[in-house]
Amino acid sequence: MNLRLIGIGAGVLIILSLPLAGAIAGPDFAGQDDGKNGGLFSTLGLSDSSRTSPTASAPAAAPSTPPAGAEQAGPVEQPRTDSRCGPELSSPHGVEAQTCILVGEGRTWGRSYYRNTSGRALDAVLTVMGPAGRTVQIRCSIGPGDEPGLCETPKEDSAGEPESYSAVAEFAVPDEEGRLLLRSGSNSPEPGDG
Residue 108: pLDDT above 90? Predict the structure, then answer.
């Protein structure tokens, strides 16, 4: 009798813990595009599509009856975001990164995906360079750990073709010397390219 009760109780606990396990699993980065397949950035839940999609975790709205004569709207289409990314790079010091230029809705910005397994906090400086000497720069504090993250500049109104923009992220030790550990660019050649 006691074994049966223990078994039923264990089964109930397992069933009740499944939603909690899903909540602990981490943030949903769906819809953010890095322009690549697989590798470090697929662990962020990033797809190879350049069109963002609504997240599946959004609650469904209760069906309602539209007023007479009103057109029923379909799902809201998310704006298109195009990206141009350099290769995924890694340093012997435990830093991995990929840097991209993103363009959408008439705006341009830079984003660097990274993982810092160096065992210490780092500083990252992400710089976007555009036509006519336009430059946007942001500094990000990068904590140690195996979790992937991203550093992103503010979105600015586009001024020219997307190909006229480039981005560079530099990861360094935050001390007086600022020793550079990795430099990653949006237009870096793939390893082996001339």
Answer: yes
Shortest CA distance to 114 belongs to which of 34, 27, 37? 34
Residue 143 lies in a domain: yes
For the segment 170-181, the average pLDDT, to the nearest whole number, is 85
| Residue 39 covered by a domain | no
pTM, entire model: 0.58
In this prediction, what percent of the chain has a pLDDT beyond 90? 42
Q: How far are the Cα atoms of 7, 20, 25, 93 from residue 10, in angstroms, in the given order?
A: 5, 16, 22, 45
The arithmetic mean of pLDDT across residues 165-194, rounded, is 80
Identify whether 1 is part of a domain: no
Long-range contacts of 185-188 (CB under 8 A, 24+ apart): 185/86, 185/99, 186/84, 186/85, 186/86, 186/99, 186/100, 186/101, 186/110, 187/84, 187/86, 188/86, 188/87, 188/89, 188/99
Contact at 8 Å (CB) between 83 and 50?
A: yes
* pLDDT above 90 (res 45): no
Rounded (to 5) percent helix, strand, coil in the chain: 20, 35, 45
Which one is predicted more confidently, 148 or 41?
148
Please tell me the total count of domains within the chain: 1
User: Domain range for residue 115?
Assistant: 81-188
CATH number at residue 114: 2.60.40.2550
Residue 194 covered by a domain: no
